[in-house]
Amino acid sequence: MELVILAVILILVLIALGLLTNVFFSFLTMSLFGGAYFAGTSRERLKQVFKLANLKLVDKLLDLGSGDGRIVSAAAQAWVKATGVEINPYYVWLSRQRIKHLKLTQKAKIVRIDLWQFDTSPYSVVVVYGIGYMMERLKKKLERELKPGSRIISVYFPIPGWQAVKELGDVKLYIIE
Ligand SMILES: C[S@@+](CC[C@H](N)C(=O)[O-])C[C@H]1O[C@@H](n2cnc3c(N)ncnc32)[C@H](O)[C@@H]1O
């Protein structure tokens, strides 16, 4: 009995240490390299993103600020070519590990770059889970670069001045005219 309690305590301590390490590296790399604190898209929102995206095999998906790579990996698992753009080297490393582990390197890649320096024009589907203050600037960039018919999925933060074509919860789909 005592052994079981000890084992449970040990497991809890290990989980807490794992979480603390993650938070520590997030804040450390954030202050060194910039970017926002990573809040991954929840499972529920992930479903909404993919419903709205309605991906076809010919699509090329881009996740701007790709965090731990969950969107990029999920798209690649659906056989769609997917790229993540991430400024924080810790998340770049983490997401590349995920892609390798899931054997998705043929379909998925992560580019370590500031999203403002990245050309979005080759992509037909762009996912953004940005930060409120960057949406106005992001809108101008996407208007300049994306081709008519490109789909943009925005999680949580609406794109100012654009009319969503469809929404599920707080996830919105926009289409470039
Ligand atoms: C809210 S998280 C979203 C992560 C992922 N897209 C998801 O939905 O799970 C935003 C991510 O954008 C990254 N980020 C913030 N500013 C960036 C920039 N200028 N260039 C590239 N990535 C950036 C952050 O490091 C963070 O990982």
Summarize the structure in short.
The chain is an alpha/beta fold and 177 residues long. It has helices at 2-33, 43-53, 70-77, 89-101, 135-145; strands spanning 60-64, 81-86, 108-112, 125-128, 151-155, 166-168, 171-175.
CATH class of the largest domain: Alpha Beta
Q: Which strand order spans the largest sheet, edge to edge or round the barrel?
A: 3-2-1-4-5-7-6
Structural class determined from secondary elements? alpha/beta
| Whole-angstrom Rg | 18 Å
What is the second-level CATH architecture of the largest domain?
Answer: 3-Layer(aba) Sandwich
Helix-strand string: HHEHEHEEHEEE
Distance between the termini: 66 Å
Shape label: globular
Amount of beta strand? 15-25%
How many domains, as an integer? 2
Task: Spell out the blueprint of helices and strands.
Elements: H1 2-33, H2 43-53, E1 60-64, H3 70-77, E2 81-86, H4 89-101, E3 108-112, E4 125-128, H5 135-145, E5 151-155, E6 166-168, E7 171-175
Parallel strand pairs: 1-2, 1-4, 2-3, 4-5
Antiparallel strand pairs: 5-7, 6-7
The chain binds S-adenosylmethionine (SAM).
